[in-house]
Amino acid sequence: MSNRGPVSFGLDDRGRRVARRGGGGLATALRGLAARHDVTWVASAMSDEDRAVAAEHAGEAIEQEAAGGPPFRLRLVACDAEAYDRYYNVVSNGTLWFLQHYLWGLAVEPDVGAAFRAAWTEGYERVNRVFADAVVDELDREPGAAVCFHDYHLYLAPAYVRDVRPSARLTHFVHVPWAQPDYWHVLPADVRRALHHGLCANDVVGFHTERWRRNFELCCEWLGAPGTRTVVNPIGVDAHELDALADDPLVLEEERRIASARPELLVVRVDRTELSKNIVRGFRAFALLLERHPELAGRVGMLALLDPSRQDLPVYGEYLRAAEEEARAVNERFGAGAWRPVDLQVADNFPQAIAAYKQFDVLLVNPIFDGMNLVAKEAPLVNRRDGVVVLSENAGAHEELGEWTLGVNPFDVEEQAAALYDGLTMPAPERRRRAVAIRAHVRRRDIAAWTDGQLAELDRPASTIRS
After folding, report:
1. CATH classification of 7-79+132-236+451-459 is 3.40.50.2000, yes or no?
2. pTM of the predicted model, to two decimals?
3. Do the beta carbons of residue 353 and residue 270 sit within 8 Å?
């Protein structure tokens, strides 16, 4: 169960229905689960064609192909447009995402009033009930199936399922950070209680790091939420799929373009245009690098590949414009002749991202907060230059990879600039040592290991009984 599915339906140039790879890090990561297990995937019907497919099949699942594995069943859940907008844009992305990534300054935002209340009852609660109904329907078809909920869109659904299927085997994995108790005070008391009680209806709740797990347990203690078993199980990537993609003809074509245009030294960042990704500060850090080290003029460049995200929300459009303005300012200040320090490209181009992964000398991953950040794992796996990773200490990946990366405070622009320089000038043997260690770790803790860990935890006797 996840809001976004592994595929999304659309129409090609001839008006024929086609299934395209689903966007977003979660859907990408979970594709490996569908390739290795007998899976029914329940997801929102997000596009017009998704909704047409859902209507044609009247709530029944359809067969889809899994990359490198057997078919899986896909069930698309369609809600009316207004309810979905309230659930997705107002509560999930407009509220929970901001809260769980500490994105509010609190002095002037948020305003929790009548609009939020309507979005909560007529959007978030309603869509979670529709998902829960679909789960119960699937459990009627296969009563012994494990039910795996994912992320912040579906915090209420487990309790709804538990009410009508008390013996169901439920697990929920939270892919975003979990904020400390004080920050949850932003939400009305009944809302924060409902969210935590919904999660505690699961047999097991999983997190990427001990940091996020500990915050959740503190919140449950503070709210008096019933006990549930919590585990730390950092998600991995599909190493076999990435290996194959690295040699895909589309990727090789994109790599030729990057290689032909790149300067001697290349800093790469690959992100969604998401406020938590800290893109603007990253450009400022790169500008400070150029200011402090004029000897790098003409020798170094930054390739920033940004995938448009949530542009229906005005604040995201404003943030993208701020990032574009910052990149333009760096180029105007430092550019000379044919050398343009920042090459900013805003597009949904997955082959180009993989090609950039292969070419970086330094990878900048500096999110304000991030549950994990799979770019920090994907890129070193396919990189061909023993590239160095500059990694925010607030990314979940830092708990795993920190000893082999250059850790930075994401708010400290000077520290990030210094880390970029250290990465670009690091001796080859040390670059090699770090790169080899990251690759070995990522291959060992891949998506198959994560999936097996999730299911094994669900099969273990609970150490804490729900009250």
Report:
1. yes
2. 0.91
3. yes
